[in-house]
Design a protein that fits this description.
267 residues, Spore Coat Polysaccharide Biosynthesis Protein SpsA, Chain A, 2 domains, 9 helices
């Protein structure tokens, strides 16, 4: 199996080398590594070119992580693609074990792995609700995203079928993508912590948005009039509306009103 690793990045020149080195040290070598620089204003391009000549770097104006991942997918030379966020790292046998899983399960075109969460050099305990899904599990993932991009490997047949990341979503783009995949495909799972996800020592995009459910609702509406989707949207709208009213956020209140009308019409 030939694999292209796609690493989207934006102004993380200090963290990016750690991610790239974790790919280069894999026991199963990636055939291609693409770093997509999403309009960084630091020295990302120069650093990659000088320190990692074997890595292909693509630069684009700042369009967000969805556009960066899509750029990597479009330019990938291989049928199998693995994502790694520029602030995360892989265990050295991550690709080897995931490739072995796909060879043993050739019908599975989409898989992920367990992961370790680190914050301020301390391991974060994951709750039961964060248990990783497998198989046909669309409904188990309606509440929030349980599949981390840095753990994912998939075949290009999937994006040829369901499309690329939704570039209109500022956040929750991974939640949206995985739901669209899980609606039609089972997900495989390698139950070993092969990815380390870091938080706390730098700004993460998702922490900047208090009303994440606003973006989850935009993803969920694509699956109306599914009965369970309707129920989930109603629950999220109740919570989001209360929060918006408490903080007098008229924009979100208006969004909730429109979304409630849509749900009521479809369900």
């Amino acid at each position: 199996m030939k694999i292209t690793v796609v690493i989207p990045t934006y102004n993380r020149v200090a963290l990016l080398p750690r991610a790239v080195e974790s790919v280069l040290s894999q026991t199963y070598r990636a055939d291609e590594i693409i770093v997509v620089d999403d309009g960084s204003t630091d020295d990302t391009c120069q650093m990659v070119q000088s320190h990692f000549p074997e890595v292909k770097i693509i630069s684009q104006p700042n369009k967000g992580v969805s556009a960066a991942r899509n750029m990597g997918i479009v330019h990938a030379s291989n049928k199998w693609i693995a994502f790694l966020d520029s602030d995360d790292v892989w265990r050295e046998d991550k690709l080897q074990l995931q490739v072995a899983y796909h060879k043993q399960n050739p019908q599975i075109l989409f898989s992920h792995t367990a992961e370790v969460w680190m914050r301020d050099d301390k391991m974060v305990k994951q709750k039961r609700k964060h248990q990783k899904p497998q198989g046909f599990c669309f409904y188990e993932n309606l509440d929030f995203c349980k599949i981390a991009p840095s753990t994912v490997m998939f075949h290009k047949k999937i994006v040829d079928d369901i499309g690329l990341f939704d570039e209109k979503l500022i956040v929750c783009e991974d939640y949206d993508m995985w739901l669209r995949i899980l609606k039609k495909y089972p997900v495989g799972f390698v139950d070993e912590a092969l990815t380390t996800k870091y938080a706390g020592d730098h700004e993460q995009l998702s922490f900047s948005y208090q009303a994440m459910d606003q973006f989850r609702l935009q993803a969920l509406q694509k699956h109306l009039p599914d009965r369970e989707v309707c129920k989930m949207m109603e629950n999220k709208l109740t919570i989001l509306t209360k929060g918006a009213q408490k903080h007098h956020n008229e924009t979100v209140i208006h969004f909730c009103t429109q979304m409630k009308d849509l749900v009521s019409h479809c369900c």
